[in-house]
Design goal:
6-stranded parallel beta sheet, HAD-like_sf, alpha/beta
């Protein structure tokens, strides 16, 4: 049960290691991505040129993107405006309502959507619970808010368990 809920389908160092051609082969037509510590550090207000290029690469391949964040409207809206992508703020991940809403807004089936995020307790757990393909990335920054710090403690324990059981072979 723990494996089914918390083990991501893929684990990569950053969003830039995600192979778009592999996503297309999996019939992935939509990306739900977290914002803070997935795309940029939680304290970076604007997308970097590299992040903008990543979004453009997805768009060029016909892959739709929605940013789904637990952060507030001001933060998420200001970040997403220059990217011209849809977004959902105060998402309350890992609850599935926002993930289902994003999938519906993109007019896709859950089998056609991937969730990308840096947190096992919110992004991976929420995606897995809702039958979505999940990719976990290493956090962009090592610092987090208080709630996220607590989640990271639990996350580290689960990662160590997965390593001991041979479910994963990556480095933290």
């Amino acid at each position: 049960m723990i494996k089914r809920l918390f083990l991501p389908n893929q684990y990569v160092q950053s969003i830039y290691e995600i192979n778009f051609d592999d996503l297309k082969k999996r019939q992935i037509k939509g990306v739900i991505t977290d914002l803070d510590n997935t795309l940029v550090g939680w304290d970076e207000a604007e997308p970097t040129p590299k992040v903008k290029e990543w979004f453009k690469s997805l768009s060029d391949r016909g892959i739709k993107v929605t940013v789904v964040s637990n952060n507030n409207e001001k933060r998420v809206k200001s970040f997403c405006q220059s990217l011209d992508v849809d977004y959902i703020f105060k998402a309350r991940k890992p609850l599935g309502k926002s993930l289902r809403k994003a999938t519906k807004q993109m007019r896709l089936k859950k089998e056609e959507v991937v969730v990308i995020g840096d947190q096992m307790m919110t992004d991976v757990f929420g995606g897995n619970r809702n039958g979505l393909y999940t990719i976990m990335v290493v956090p962009v920054k090592n610092s987090d808010g208080l709630v996220t710090q607590f989640n990271r403690l639990i996350e580290r324990r689960i990662l160590h368990y997965f390593k001991r059981k041979g479910f994963i072979n990556w480095e933290e």
